[in-house]
Design brief:
Rossmann fold, 2 domains
Length: 245
Protein backbone atom coordinates (compact mmCIF):
# COMPACT_ATOMS: atom_id res chain seq x y z
CA UNK A 1 0.00 0.00 0.00
CA UNK A 2 1.39 3.41 -0.95
CA UNK A 3 0.83 5.98 1.78
CA UNK A 4 -0.24 9.54 0.94
CA UNK A 5 2.61 12.01 0.99
CA UNK A 6 0.78 14.04 3.65
CA UNK A 7 1.27 11.25 6.22
CA UNK A 8 4.47 11.09 8.29
CA UNK A 9 7.06 8.47 7.43
CA UNK A 10 6.95 5.87 10.22
CA UNK A 11 9.62 3.19 10.47
CA UNK A 12 8.73 -0.23 11.84
CA UNK A 13 5.12 -0.46 10.67
CA UNK A 14 5.57 -3.19 8.08
CA UNK A 15 3.49 -5.80 9.91
CA UNK A 16 0.42 -5.79 12.11
CA UNK A 17 -0.97 -8.19 14.66
CA UNK A 18 -4.42 -9.59 14.00
CA UNK A 19 -7.00 -6.92 14.81
CA UNK A 20 -9.01 -9.01 17.24
CA UNK A 21 -10.84 -5.91 18.55
CA UNK A 22 -11.67 -4.65 15.08
CA UNK A 23 -14.25 -1.77 15.28
CA UNK A 24 -14.77 -2.16 19.07
CA UNK A 25 -15.36 1.17 20.84
CA UNK A 26 -13.93 1.64 24.34
CA UNK A 27 -14.69 4.43 26.79
CA UNK A 28 -11.68 4.74 29.10
CA UNK A 29 -12.44 6.51 32.40
CA UNK A 30 -8.93 7.25 33.65
CA UNK A 31 -7.24 10.44 34.88
CA UNK A 32 -3.64 9.23 34.45
CA UNK A 33 -2.11 10.39 31.17
CA UNK A 34 0.52 7.67 31.06
CA UNK A 35 -1.98 4.86 31.70
CA UNK A 36 -4.37 6.35 29.16
CA UNK A 37 -1.71 6.56 26.45
CA UNK A 38 -0.61 2.96 27.06
CA UNK A 39 -4.18 1.70 26.74
CA UNK A 40 -4.82 3.84 23.67
CA UNK A 41 -1.77 2.36 21.97
CA UNK A 42 -2.82 -1.19 22.87
CA UNK A 43 -6.26 -0.44 21.49
CA UNK A 44 -4.88 1.01 18.25
CA UNK A 45 -2.71 -2.07 17.81
CA UNK A 46 -5.82 -4.24 18.27
CA UNK A 47 -8.12 -2.33 15.91
CA UNK A 48 -10.25 -0.75 18.66
CA UNK A 49 -11.18 2.91 19.09
CA UNK A 50 -10.79 4.66 22.45
CA UNK A 51 -12.41 7.76 23.85
CA UNK A 52 -11.11 9.00 27.17
CA UNK A 53 -12.91 10.62 30.09
CA UNK A 54 -10.69 11.83 32.94
CA UNK A 55 -13.45 11.99 35.57
CA UNK A 56 -16.88 10.63 36.46
CA UNK A 57 -18.45 13.87 35.24
CA UNK A 58 -16.73 13.59 31.87
CA UNK A 59 -17.76 9.93 31.61
CA UNK A 60 -21.41 10.90 32.14
CA UNK A 61 -21.17 13.41 29.30
CA UNK A 62 -19.69 10.78 26.96
CA UNK A 63 -22.32 8.21 27.86
CA UNK A 64 -25.10 10.71 27.22
CA UNK A 65 -23.93 10.97 23.61
CA UNK A 66 -22.95 7.44 22.57
CA UNK A 67 -22.86 3.86 23.83
CA UNK A 68 -19.44 2.15 23.77
CA UNK A 69 -18.98 -1.61 23.56
CA UNK A 70 -16.71 -1.56 26.61
CA UNK A 71 -16.17 0.85 29.52
CA UNK A 72 -12.84 0.61 31.34
CA UNK A 73 -13.09 2.33 34.74
CA UNK A 74 -10.15 3.26 36.96
CA UNK A 75 -11.14 2.89 40.60
CA UNK A 76 -9.33 6.04 41.73
CA UNK A 77 -10.98 9.02 40.02
CA UNK A 78 -10.53 12.69 40.99
CA UNK A 79 -14.25 13.40 41.53
CA UNK A 80 -15.55 10.13 42.94
CA UNK A 81 -15.24 6.41 43.46
CA UNK A 82 -14.83 4.33 40.31
CA UNK A 83 -16.59 1.47 42.08
CA UNK A 84 -19.71 3.64 42.31
CA UNK A 85 -19.55 4.36 38.57
CA UNK A 86 -19.26 0.63 37.83
CA UNK A 87 -22.33 -0.05 39.97
CA UNK A 88 -24.26 2.76 38.27
CA UNK A 89 -23.45 1.43 34.80
CA UNK A 90 -24.35 -2.13 35.74
CA UNK A 91 -27.69 -1.16 37.32
CA UNK A 92 -28.79 1.36 34.67
CA UNK A 93 -32.10 0.80 32.89
CA UNK A 94 -30.04 -0.21 29.86
CA UNK A 95 -26.98 -1.72 31.56
CA UNK A 96 -23.56 -1.92 29.95
CA UNK A 97 -22.31 -5.49 30.14
CA UNK A 98 -18.72 -4.86 29.05
CA UNK A 99 -17.39 -3.16 32.18
CA UNK A 100 -13.72 -3.57 33.11
CA UNK A 101 -12.36 -2.39 36.47
CA UNK A 102 -8.83 -0.94 36.41
CA UNK A 103 -6.46 -0.30 39.31
CA UNK A 104 -2.80 -0.15 40.19
CA UNK A 105 -3.38 -1.86 43.54
CA UNK A 106 -2.86 -5.55 44.13
CA UNK A 107 -5.79 -7.32 42.53
CA UNK A 108 -6.60 -9.32 45.65
CA UNK A 109 -7.56 -6.07 47.39
CA UNK A 110 -10.25 -4.96 44.96
CA UNK A 111 -11.16 -7.60 42.38
CA UNK A 112 -13.93 -9.24 44.41
CA UNK A 113 -15.52 -5.89 45.22
CA UNK A 114 -15.35 -4.74 41.60
CA UNK A 115 -16.95 -7.94 40.30
CA UNK A 116 -19.68 -7.67 42.94
CA UNK A 117 -20.33 -4.08 41.88
CA UNK A 118 -20.96 -5.18 38.30
CA UNK A 119 -17.60 -5.34 36.53
CA UNK A 120 -17.24 -8.23 34.09
CA UNK A 121 -13.42 -8.32 34.31
CA UNK A 122 -10.46 -6.66 36.01
CA UNK A 123 -7.14 -5.26 34.79
CA UNK A 124 -4.11 -4.35 36.85
CA UNK A 125 -1.92 -1.35 36.03
CA UNK A 126 0.55 -1.42 34.45
CA UNK A 127 -1.06 -3.82 32.01
CA UNK A 128 1.16 -6.86 31.61
CA UNK A 129 1.08 -7.13 27.81
CA UNK A 130 -0.87 -6.50 24.63
CA UNK A 131 -2.19 -10.06 24.84
CA UNK A 132 -3.45 -9.52 28.41
CA UNK A 133 -5.27 -6.37 27.26
CA UNK A 134 -6.82 -8.09 24.24
CA UNK A 135 -7.94 -11.16 26.18
CA UNK A 136 -9.54 -9.04 28.88
CA UNK A 137 -11.52 -6.88 26.45
CA UNK A 138 -12.56 -9.91 24.37
CA UNK A 139 -13.82 -11.65 27.52
CA UNK A 140 -16.42 -8.93 28.21
CA UNK A 141 -17.81 -8.64 24.68
CA UNK A 142 -21.23 -10.34 24.60
CA UNK A 143 -20.79 -11.46 20.97
CA UNK A 144 -17.16 -12.52 21.29
CA UNK A 145 -17.80 -15.94 19.74
CA UNK A 146 -19.62 -14.68 16.65
CA UNK A 147 -18.18 -11.22 16.06
CA UNK A 148 -16.54 -10.40 12.76
CA UNK A 149 -12.86 -11.20 12.31
CA UNK A 150 -11.29 -8.98 9.64
CA UNK A 151 -9.60 -10.29 6.55
CA UNK A 152 -5.88 -9.73 5.99
CA UNK A 153 -6.74 -6.90 3.60
CA UNK A 154 -8.94 -5.21 6.21
CA UNK A 155 -6.22 -5.58 8.82
CA UNK A 156 -3.60 -4.05 6.53
CA UNK A 157 -5.78 -1.10 5.58
CA UNK A 158 -7.50 -0.29 8.87
CA UNK A 159 -4.55 -1.22 11.06
CA UNK A 160 -2.00 0.92 9.27
CA UNK A 161 -4.47 3.77 8.88
CA UNK A 162 -5.41 3.73 12.58
CA UNK A 163 -1.79 3.71 13.76
CA UNK A 164 -0.81 6.42 11.30
CA UNK A 165 -3.77 8.55 12.35
CA UNK A 166 -3.06 8.06 16.05
CA UNK A 167 0.65 8.85 15.66
CA UNK A 168 -0.07 11.90 13.52
CA UNK A 169 -2.40 13.22 16.23
CA UNK A 170 0.24 12.51 18.89
CA UNK A 171 2.93 14.32 16.93
CA UNK A 172 0.72 17.35 16.28
CA UNK A 173 -0.30 17.60 19.93
CA UNK A 174 3.29 17.24 21.13
CA UNK A 175 4.49 19.72 18.51
CA UNK A 176 2.06 22.38 19.74
CA UNK A 177 3.03 21.82 23.37
CA UNK A 178 6.77 21.79 22.63
CA UNK A 179 6.61 25.00 20.59
CA UNK A 180 4.79 26.73 23.46
CA UNK A 181 7.23 25.25 25.99
CA UNK A 182 10.16 26.50 23.92
CA UNK A 183 8.64 29.97 23.78
CA UNK A 184 7.89 30.14 27.52
CA UNK A 185 10.94 28.10 28.64
CA UNK A 186 8.60 25.62 30.31
CA UNK A 187 10.97 22.72 31.05
CA UNK A 188 8.29 20.62 32.80
CA UNK A 189 5.99 20.53 29.77
CA UNK A 190 8.91 19.82 27.44
CA UNK A 191 9.98 16.91 29.65
CA UNK A 192 6.45 15.48 29.70
CA UNK A 193 6.21 15.66 25.90
CA UNK A 194 9.60 13.99 25.50
CA UNK A 195 8.63 11.17 27.88
CA UNK A 196 5.31 10.70 26.09
CA UNK A 197 6.86 10.59 22.62
CA UNK A 198 9.57 8.25 23.88
CA UNK A 199 6.92 5.76 25.03
CA UNK A 200 5.09 6.09 21.71
CA UNK A 201 8.31 5.49 19.78
CA UNK A 202 9.18 2.41 21.85
CA UNK A 203 5.65 0.98 21.50
CA UNK A 204 5.74 1.37 17.70
CA UNK A 205 9.35 0.26 17.27
CA UNK A 206 10.22 3.71 15.94
CA UNK A 207 13.85 3.98 17.05
CA UNK A 208 14.43 7.42 15.57
CA UNK A 209 11.54 8.96 17.50
CA UNK A 210 12.41 7.11 20.73
CA UNK A 211 16.07 8.18 20.54
CA UNK A 212 15.20 11.80 19.80
CA UNK A 213 12.77 11.86 22.73
CA UNK A 214 15.32 10.35 25.10
CA UNK A 215 17.83 12.99 24.02
CA UNK A 216 15.45 15.89 24.68
CA UNK A 217 16.80 16.56 28.17
CA UNK A 218 17.94 20.10 27.42
CA UNK A 219 17.01 22.96 25.10
CA UNK A 220 19.21 21.66 22.27
CA UNK A 221 17.77 18.15 22.53
CA UNK A 222 14.21 19.48 22.66
CA UNK A 223 14.99 21.51 19.55
CA UNK A 224 16.20 18.42 17.70
CA UNK A 225 13.02 16.57 18.71
CA UNK A 226 10.92 19.44 17.37
CA UNK A 227 12.88 19.41 14.13
CA UNK A 228 12.16 15.70 13.75
CA UNK A 229 8.43 16.25 14.34
CA UNK A 230 8.43 19.09 11.82
CA UNK A 231 10.10 16.81 9.29
CA UNK A 232 7.62 14.00 9.91
CA UNK A 233 4.59 16.25 9.60
CA UNK A 234 6.08 18.49 6.91
CA UNK A 235 4.45 21.45 8.66
CA UNK A 236 7.24 23.91 9.33
CA UNK A 237 5.28 25.19 12.33
CA UNK A 238 8.37 25.61 14.46
CA UNK A 239 9.96 27.91 11.91
CA UNK A 240 6.73 29.86 11.56
CA UNK A 241 6.50 30.25 15.34
CA UNK A 242 10.01 31.69 15.34
CA UNK A 243 9.16 34.05 12.51
CA UNK A 244 11.50 32.30 10.08
CA UNK A 245 10.48 32.26 6.44
Amino acid sequence: MTLPSTEPDIPGLGSFRRKCLFAVTILLVEDSRSASEAIRLYAAESGARVRRADSMHAASRHLAIYRPNVVVVDLGLPDGDGMALISHLALASTPIQGIVALSGQDRSEWQELALAAGAAACLEKPIESLRAFQECILSVLPDRESRHRPSDAEVAMTGRASVLRALTEDLRRAQSLLIEAERTEDAETAAYCAQFLGSVGEMLGDGELADAARGAQDAAGAGRLLDLIDRRLGSGLRQEARGVA
